[in-house]
Design a protein that fits this description.
single chain, 392 residues, alpha/beta, Rossmann fold, Rna Polymerase Sigma Factor, Chain: A, seven-stranded parallel β-sheet, four-stranded mixed β-sheet, 46% helix, 15% strand, binds NADPH dihydro-nicotinamide-adenine-dinucleotide phosphate
Length: 392
């Protein structure tokens, strides 16, 4: 039996993971499940999958979690350190699906036990890519990408030599505002941004898809995970969201991964890897789909892409700063405190303001310690607060 833990079990990716695990109860034993505020769902999942332990990120929610699991024999815990302890519990496969930089410490803790980490939490690669990859190497752990684009690239590279790769293209639906006139974007609301044309995902990633901050994170993630040069990574708007990524080789071949908008494909691939087993996802009827379209993204509409390129070139701490400033700006947008277009302004202001801190941590390949990443994250959130207060 494969021992499985799911960090961020109550979220969109976490629920899809447990959907797959639950379809084959004889194949899996669930070790740890973690969640945040949704204690009712966490307790229900822990009961249904007979987890060893359920952990909430919020200490104040522990009494409720205990009450809900009373008499089941399932252990409970709460808080940031308890999340890392959950990730340290021996398991063969751990899903990292906490949203945001909060996913980094538990992800590192999981890697330290030399396990297989299925990585949906792109923010940890953006904030601390070299640290994450180095931790995996030192502990003999495996990281499998779960972001659909990165799973697609990974699949296109099976049996290939990375040295033969010329370029990697990741696709973007263009998000909720793809076809909006530019002058309407300033007034776009969080509710409008959270309405993705193709994918059903958590609120934060859906809004990040509308601004293309999600694609910006994924460009950086591609560079960090596959170790390619920034100039080899590009994004292409593909409204149908069926081609997830393409890998271009030096002989001119372009290998595309085509699949339905269903995260259970990428999650299932990582769950079954290195085998390919049947998955309960739609089979595409290409004749019915008829056509697939692509276009170059407009950087006036999506300044996040320009900022991603800057971060890829700068390396070092710039990813941690970029991600933290983006998270702070997104919080403020969701709370109605800043406008949709202000998010990119705030992130750029913070990157400018912290240029010296970022420069102090060159060269790019150096592994930066978790404490330094955390300090940069903290400072970037403070600077983002100041930048937002100064907005007109
Ligand atoms: P959701 O918002 O749906 O879920 C996030 C999960 O993280 C929930 O379990 C949530 O708990 C938990 N959580 C939130 N804040 C904290 C915290 N501070 N500490 C610990 N746990 C916390 O996110 P998604 O499932 O959409 O995304 C998860 C990750 O996967 C993200 O990094 C995202 O970018 C990535 N991803 C998601 C895809 C998708 O299709 N959704 C596709 C590709 C990548 P609770 O809900 O109980 O508060």
């Amino acid at each position: 039996m494969k021992r499985v833990s799911v960090l961020g079990a109550t979220g969109s990716v976490g629920c899809s993971t447990l959907d797959l695990v639950g379809r084959d109860p004889d194949a899996y034993r669930v070790v740890a499940l973690t969640g945040g505020a949704n204690v009712a769902l966490l307790a229900e999942q822990a009961r249904r999958h007979r987890a060893e332990i359920a952990v909430t990120a919020h200490e104040a929610a522990l009494p409720e979690l205990r009450d809900r699991l009373a008499g089941t024999g399932i252990a409970t815990a709460a808080g940031a350190e308890a999340l890392c302890d959950a990730a340290r519990r021996p398991a063969d496969w751990i899903m990292s699906a906490i949203v945001g930089a909060a996913g980094l410490p538990p992800g590192l803790a999981a890697l330290e036990q030399g396990t297989t980490l299925a990585l949906a939490n792109k923010e940890s690669l953006v904030a601390a890519g070299p640290l994450l990859m180095d931790t995996a190497r030192r502990h003999g752990a495996t990281i499998l990408p779960v972001d659909s684009e990165h799973s697609a690239i990974f699949q296109a590279l099976v049996g290939e030599d990375l040295g033969a790769v010329e370029r990697i293209v990741i696709t973007a639906s263009g998000g909720a505002f793809r076809d909006w006139p530019l002058d309407r974007l300033a007034a776009a609301t969080p509710q409008e941004a959270a309405n993705h044309p193709n994918w059903d995902m958590g609120q934060r990633i859906t809004i990040d898809s509308a601004s293309l901050f999600n694609k910006a994170l994924e460009l950086i993630e591609t560079k960090e995970f596959f170790g390619v040069a920034p100039r080899q990574v590009e994004a292409l708007v593909h409204p149908e969201s069926l081609v997830h990524a393409l890998v271009g080789f030096r002989d001119g071949a372009l290998m595309a991964h085509v699949g339905p908008h269903d995260m259970r494909h990428a999650i299932g691939y990582a769950l079954n890897w290195p085998e390919r087993r049947a998955l309960p996802v739609e089979r595409l009827d290409l004749a019915a789909i008829g056509q697939l379209t692509f276009r170059t993204p407009d950087e006036d509409r999506y300044p996040a892409l320009r900022l991603a390129r800057r971060v890829m070139e700068q390396g070092g701490l710039s990813g941690a700063v970029f991600n933290a400033a983006k998270e702070a700006a997104l919080d403020a947008f969701i709370a109605g405190r800043i406008g949709f277009l202000d998010m990119a302004r705030v992130v750029e202001t913070v990157l400018d303001a912290m240029a010296r801190d970022i420069d102090a941590h060159r060269p790019e390949k150096a592994v930066i310690a978790l404490d330094t990443v955390r300090q940069a994250d903290h400072l970037a959130r403070e600077r983002a607060g100041a930048a937002m207060a100064a907005l007109p």
